[in-house]
Amino acid sequence: MYDTLTPAGPARPSAAEANDAIRLLVDNLAGDEWPAEAYEFLLEEWAAASRAEAAAAELC
User: Fold this and answer.
1) How confident is the model at residue 12, as a pLDDT?
2) How many domains is the chain built from?
């Protein structure tokens, strides 16, 4: 039997998933106040995922 490792923290989204979340956030504003903190968080997640994916592609 194999034991699997439990992640130490929450998994990061892929760049595509973060991008979809950003689009959903922007599309659902409907005149509300700009959610700067949420947008900044998602943008940082997207940037981190993009860097990780680019680095992984360079290894191939």
Assistant:
1) 84
2) 1
Q: What are the percentages of helix, strand and coil residues in the chain, rounded to 5? A: 60, 0, 40
Which of 9, 35, 11 is CA-nearest to residue 24? 35
pLDDT digits (tens, 9 = 90+) for 12-55: 899 999 999 999 999 988 777 889 999 999 999 999 999 999 99
Residue 39: domain span: 20-27+35-54
Question: Is 4 part of any domain?
Answer: no
Residue type, 51: R
Query: Are 49 and 22 contacting, i.e. CB atoms less than 8 angstroms apart?
Result: no
